[in-house]
Amino acid sequence: LSTGLDLPGRFLFATLTLMTLIGILVFIEEAVYIYRKIPSSKRSIIIWINAAAPVISTTSCIGMWVPRSTMFTDFTAGIFFAIVIHKFLMMMIKECGGQKVLLRRFENGRFTISTGPCCCCCLCLPRVPITRQTLFWLKLGTFQFAVFRPVLIFLSIVLWTNGNYVLYNLSPKGPALWISCFIGALTLCALWAVGIMFRKVRILLKCKNIIPKFALYQFIVILNHLQTTIINIFATQKIIPCAPPLSSTARGSYIAQQLLIMEMFLITVISRVVYRRKYHDLEPPECPAEEPGDKKQTP
C-alpha cells in the first residue's frame, strides 16, 4: 500500500499511526494507574471502558494500512464496544455502591423509561418501580447485546467467506440487510437500558463526574456507529467520488478510518483526565427509622 502513496499521503498515514501509538501508550499508563489506585471491585470495569477508544483507533489504523482487513477490524471493534456498553451500565451500578445499596437508595423511586433512543417521544409511558426485577431487565438489555452481536458478526464472517454476505448489498434478498437491521434493533435496546439508568443516577453521581463520562461514551457510540454508517451510505450512493485506484466504497472506508483515529485519540486523552481524578465515595444510604417498640433495651 505504501508504494501507491504520494508524499502527503505517506505523511498522513505516518501521523495517524503515531497518534494511534501515543493513544495506546496513554491507555497503558492509565491502566497501570487504575490498577494501583482503584478498588478491585471497579478496576476491571473502568479499564474496559477506557480501552474502547484505543481499541477502535487500533483497528481503524490496521484497516487503513491493510484495506482487505477492514471487515475483520470493523467487526472486532464492534464486538469490543458491545461489551463496553454492558460494562458502562455495570459501572453506574457499582458507583452507586452496588445493586443492594442502589435498591436501598431508590427504595421508593421509579425509572423513567420514556428516554432515548427508543422512547424519548413516548411521554405517556408509565414510570417503572425500581426493584431487583427491573434492574435485572436493564442488565439483560445490555448483556444480550454483548452476547448476540458477536454471534451475528461470526455468522456474517462465515457468510462472507462463502461469498453470500456483501456489506454494501442491502437488497431484501441478501443477508446483509437483515443482519444489519437485527444488530440495529439490539443496539437500540442496549442504549435504551443505559439511558434509563443514567437518567436516574446522574444527580446522585454528579460528584463522580458521571455526566462527562456519559458524554464520552455517547461520543464513541455516535462516531463509531452513526458517523461510519453515514459515510458508508455516501460512498455507496457515489456521493463520495472514486479516485483511482480507490473506488467510492474504498475511499469512504479510508475517510471513516482516518476520522476515527483522530477522534479516538482525543477521546483517549480526555478520558485519562476524567477517569484519573480521585473521587470520594458516596455516603451510605440512611437506614429506615426503627419503631420505638422494636428497639430493644440493653442492660
From TrEMBL:
It is a multi-pass membrane protein. The keyword Transmembrane helix applies. SMART domains: Solute_trans_a (SM01417). One of its GO terms (cellular component) is membrane. The chain crosses the membrane at residues 12-33, 45-66, 72-90, 136-160, 175-194, 214-235, 255-275. It is found in: Membrane. Keywords: Membrane, Transmembrane, Transmembrane helix. It comes from the Eukaryota. Pfam families: Solute_trans_a. The keyword Ligase does not apply. This is OSTA protein. The gene is Slc51a_1.
